[in-house]
Specification:
The complex is a heterodimer of chains A (361) and B (287).
Chain A lengths: L7 E4 L5 H21 L2 H26 L8 H18 L3 H23 L5 H18 L11 E2 L2 H5 L4 H8 L3 H29 L1 H11 L1 H6 L4 H27 L1 E2 L1 H4 L2 H15 L5 H17 L4 H17 L3 H10 L9 E4 L6 E2 L5
Helix pairs in contact in A: 1-8, 2-8, 2-11, 2-13, 2-14, 3-4, 3-5, 3-11, 4-11, 7-8, 8-9, 8-11, 13-14, 13-16, 14-16
Chain B lengths: L1 H30 L6 H19 L3 H27 L5 H22 L15 E4 L2 E4 H23 L1 H11 L1 H6 L4 H26 L7 H15 L4 H21 L4 H15 L11
Antiparallel strand pairs in B: 1-2
Helix pairs in contact in B: 1-5, 1-8, 1-9, 1-10, 2-3, 2-4, 2-8, 2-9, 3-8, 5-6, 5-8, 6-8, 9-10, 9-11, 10-11
The chains are: A mainly alpha (361), B mainly alpha (287).
Chain lengths: 361, 287
Amino acid sequence: MSLVVPSWQVETRNKTSAPFGLAAVATVLLAFAVPLLVSRGVVQDLFFILTMLVLAQNWNLLAGYAGLISVGQQAFVGFGAYAMFACVILFGADPLVAVLIAGVLSMLLAIPTAFFTFRLQGPYFAIGTWVIAEVVRLLLAQWKALGGGTGTSLPREATRDMIGVGLMRDLFGMKASAAGDALTYWIALILMVLTVGFVYGLLRSKQGLGLAAVRDNEQAARAVGVNARRMKAFVYLAASFITGIAGALIYVQKARISPDAAFSVTDWTAYVIFIVVIGGIGTVEGPIVGVILFFFLQNLLAGYGSWYLLMLGLIGILVMLFAPRGLWGLFSDRTGIQLFPVRRLLRGGSLNRAHKGVPHG
Amino acid sequence: MNWLDTILQGVLLGGLYALFAAGLSLVFGIMRLVNLAHGDLIVLAAFVILALVTTLGVSPIVGALIAAPLMFAAGWALQYFVLNRTLGKDMLPPLLVTFGLSIVIQNGLLEGFSADSRRVSAGSLESASIALGPVNAGIMPLMTFLSAVAVIVCLNQLIYRTAVGRAFRATSDDPATAGLMGIRPQRIFALATGLAMVVVTIAALYLATRANFEPTSGPARLIYAFEAVIVGGLGSLWGTLVGGVILGIAQTVGAAINPEWQILTGHLAFLLVLLFKPRGLFPRAVD
């Protein structure tokens, strides 16, 4: 934070952010120990929560900050998963190395897709991303070496001999399958921490301020020198990289892929949108609140099949209509609490009075 | 001769896509709203027709005639009570609300009608065909195409020749000023969506009688409609028809080469147009 006038200072810190930061660090450290303490089922549930949170943070960054409303992020989940499968099955790569390669390939895929979708204005961008996802799905369904339209499985040896599995077997005496679950869980945890850190760091940076300015008023932002197009392209590429990694990681754990599942609009976009909308779009806290609520709703109601999805849709509509800033928005507006503060406050100086910036600016 | 036949089938299929697209185009033109549930509303209308045909024993066309006012009312209410609340500078609320609606409709239909593929029988019309020079055209596809032309002529007449159309155009240009002239934008929007639902019912009639459909068929219909609109260029209904025809030809030609490629070649044709003509073939609107 640079000083504009010597005695003035721009800060984003607030009363709750420091204790929360400590609590968050403690929670993450505790979370690392989880696979040693609880059953495999719980580890798998937590893995699901963590990966959905990563996807949600990405979608929130796109839609809530960059104004890029995509309903085609399943393109990168599916492509990342398929890239990982290709690396493992065709080139015999280690699944964990393949996950990283999948992220890079997903980002490369985002370059041509951005070229097309960025030509579509406003709401048509949304459907354009969907078309791209369909094209990628249909093309990969033609790839016979990876099972074509019916899909294929990861070879058993690949996950059993994954880097680190042997080590964990020796250290903790875990079975290969449990060690695999613990390993993917830890990577998901690291990915989640890095993603939240990246999003939060970006929002606090000069670029993040530019991004918020573009979202609030693109013309005004461009008039003061923000390169809106470059910011959006950067966010789009970053989100596709992380989404690709998340997709690949999810499918290391699932170990079975098919085009319909890997490119599912419901699983990778509708759920993610629901999480972000109900938690609170345009905040870092929102997706965290949303994913926890989503997990409980799913456990309570998933047995009801399509009634469950129907209800999620209705809840999403109601929240968007009556509380467009989500549950976290409601809570934050009442209490003024921000756990990941990005609002810049001017402190010190002769007036000795805090000048508030615009909401979540 | 085979190719001529393929292209004719493509042109006629394009009529169906233009019907899918006309309602989307109308709503976007007047209130800049993209309804992500558009495809699901088409499928909903198809199920309404199916229910009417099976319970009342009427022909599909009579079924559509009964369904049209019901769909008009549903569209009017949807716009007036729900979607109007979402309109504003921010495009996020309308997109997310209609996306939620899409999920609600799909799963509602799954509960009500199960996941089975359905079809409405059109009796002897289904297999009837007439010779057009060297090739044969099915009566149903031909009726679809002619209906698309008729719908576009009617919509153009309505928009450019009547008082309601003038109100549509005025509200589209500037809702606030239109309001000063005694037009209530909220009602105009509701009327436009109601009208779009009538077009949707016509599209649903042909969707239901020409091919199998199921509760989850909606998103694909939305995508075809969207592609037809973009290929044709925003703001031109005739352009939308051309866009639908291009999409239809690309799909039937692709299917003739390899049946698995039907959908893919349609999407690729769309991407090619987007590459060389980002604003579509016949752009009219500035935005």
